[in-house]
Amino acid sequence: MREPAIMFRLPTQVLSNLDALARRLDVSVNIVAKLIVTREIMHIPAMLEEHDRQLANMHQFLRELAFRNEEFLSVDGRKGAAAEAMAEKLHEVITALDAIRDAAFLRPSTFIADLIRNHDERPVQKSLRV
Fold first, then answer.
1. Which of these, 27, 88, 29, 25, lies nearest to 62 by C-alpha position?
2. Residue 130: per-residue pLDDT
3. CA 4, 9, 15 angle in degrees (round to 5)?
């Protein structure tokens, strides 16, 4: 049996099953592996949505904390060194939370839909025998 070239290491039994499936689908082993990984990644949006909700809650808490302590943070129009340092740190944390939320935003991919469409548009299709 030939050793399929794949972008990462897998146990021999898994690799041979992956190779057999790739031959049946008439695609590369890497495409099949990528589809499997992509399928697993499809569960991530729900986790990211919850993660984003929690970050939004943290952001809101920090904004309310700053609002409630506004009087302390500005002493008669003059800011003390401690109040100024606290305000700066709150701003840094809120900015970091916003950056994390922006980086975690999931953009939709058409990879799987394109692969299925390409397979369906082939003039001759092979059925899978399990």
1. 88
2. 47
3. 45
> Treating both helix axes as pointing N-terminal to C-terminal, what angle do 111-120 and 29-41 enclose, rounded to 10 degrees?
130
126: left (phi over 0), alpha (psi -120 to 50) or beta: beta
Orientation angle between helical segments 29-41 and 12-25, nearest 10 degrees? 100
Residue whose pair of structure tokens reads 């949006």 in the numeric block? 45
What separation in angstroms does the CA of 26 have from each of 6, 8, 119, 125? 15, 20, 9, 10
pLDDT tens column, 40-53: 777 777 777 888 88
Q: How does pLDDT run across 95-113, given as a tens digit for each residue?
A: 888 888 887 766 666 776 7
